[in-house]
Amino acid sequence: MSEEHYLELCENPVQFEHASSVNNVFFDEANKQVFAVRSGGATGVVVKGPDDKSSVAFRMDDKGEVKCIKFSIGNKILAVQRTSKSVDFINFIPDYPHTEFTQECKTKNASVLGFCWTNWNEIVFITDQGIEFYQVFPDKRSLKLLKSQSINVNWYQYCPETAVILLSTTVQGNILQPFAFRSGTMSKMSKFEIELPVVPKPAKLSLSERDIAMATIYGQLHVMYLKHHSRTANSTSAEVVLYHLPREGACKKSHVLKLNTTGKFALNIVDNLVVVHHQSSQTSLIFDIKLKEPDCAVNTHQPVLPARSIHPYRIPLSGPAVVPSQPPVPCQLYSSSWSVFQPDIIISASEGYLWYLQVKLPPTVNLLQDKGKLMDFLLRRRDCKMVILSVCSQSTRGVLPVVATVFDKLNQVYKEYLEAEQSYTVVSDDCSTHTHKHTSAVSSTSTNTQRRVLWVGVSHKFIIAVLMEYIRSLNQFQITVQHYLYELVIKTLVQHNLFYMLHQFLQYHVLSDSKPLACLLLSLESTYPPAHQLSLDMLKRLSTANDEIVEVLLSKQQVLGALRFIRSVGGHDNVSARKFLDAARQTGDQMLFYTVFRSFQQRNQRLRGSPGFNPGEHCEEHVVHFKQLFGEQALMKPSTV
């Protein structure tokens, strides 16, 4: 059995000069840009980004080794750190001077650990003694200190998506202090402590930068801590501990992901899934924090799927010495030269590639046997539509409880989408827009399920059972059942002579009353005569279908029945006399014509004081016909009362 890979590297990676041909390679997480820096005389820099607009090449004066280099948003201003005391700036805005200008950190005896752009003209210096928040004036070639905060810093991490900087403080480094930045303001968030593993005294652990990552999962910012196993503790394997970091309020431990192994790990976030790469086994695990594990404690998660390696990737050969027939070279997956960045980026500096990690959904269908859990998993993923249709199609060849579970999972999300659309719900900070976009995709998936997956090569009884399960599920979530589903049920029942079942479905209102359904029943009368009466009963229950009932009865030459019905609903005074007289005359029954004619004469007498018909009723030919049959003396005379 071939291994099913549910993770893959993107087909079109960002290519840059590999490490062997340049002095340094830097990655900017905010702009998703790789900087390949080559020194010697002048410093040459080649910047590669996700698209051509974010890619650029330039030269700058060689003023020492580059420690860090990043563009502000939109490639407007370049910041370069060469020393531990200052950061240099170069304008890339058209018509602005390109001369470098420098900003030293304000704190005496502080060393700059790095910097982060929080806006196109706002930057934060992180030093070992705190942070300094500046506004950059490219036209004046100067900076203005907006705010600063003194705090001992071991290391820092930055989440560009939320503009939150996380500082490691204290000797052990496990007290983390976050700061949020927005439109020229800096906000101090609640600090929190990372629980380190217990070790024998006097040994002490410290929190490593390598074991911490920040990322947004389902619209909420999380700090991820890779907690390695402790030989003295009961735990024999590593785990990833997630801390939810809200804008306001305390940061709390929210989820624990069980890795069930030890070794070197790296973390990515792909489509709201936490991906944990394990170097020694060259495999990856995925976790979905929205999935509840029945056998685990609250918010403790096992991997959704068995460990699998990333799909093999081949690097095409390039250069003048390459022979066209030479095959691509296999990429060494899980290489020690790989660098992993949030949320979904893997960089191989030695090979000069930046990949986006992707989830492949089709292999998950066979790897996850619990179809209810599978549906929960798929419904939260991007591009899930075709895979969900495949699951629905497969399940309709299985057992009914599985079919019911799959339909309920699908329609639950579909209902949420319909309610959100109806109320124009604005997605809040605590509710990911991902979910809202997702449910709109699921709505079309649900519709396609109705139209596509139910026609399967199985017995007619099972088809009916599947259809009824789907209708039950729609009704359970108060979703309107489309007429074609009822039509499919009825036609299948009639086709296989299951009239008793049809009668029961209608009698107990399993099939909801509607005018189209009543008309469908009428059309089946030649095959199943009782369908005529079933149709009439349904139309009567609708109470808004009086005209349809009259038309049905008249078409069946049940003129007196139509007359009695229209009287029973109080519509006799307004009904067209000619319509009834036409129908009565077409029967060829003279006494029936007499009865209907006299009935409308009596109506005219009661309403207008005269039995005659108004010219606008166009009943002249019927008056003539009545005289021919019964004589003029049979006409009703005006009342003298």
From TrEMBL:
* The Mic1 domain, residue ranges: 382-614
GO BP terms: namely: regulation of autophagy
**InterPro entries recorded for this chain?**
RMC1, RMC1_C, RMC1_N
The record's section on Pfam families has:
RMC1_C, RMC1_N
| Domain Regulator of MON1-CCZ1 complex N-terminal residue range list | 25-143
Q: What is one term from the GO cellular component aspect held by the record?
A: late endosome membrane
Lineage: superkingdom: Eukaryota
- Report what the protein is called: Regulator of MON1-CCZ1
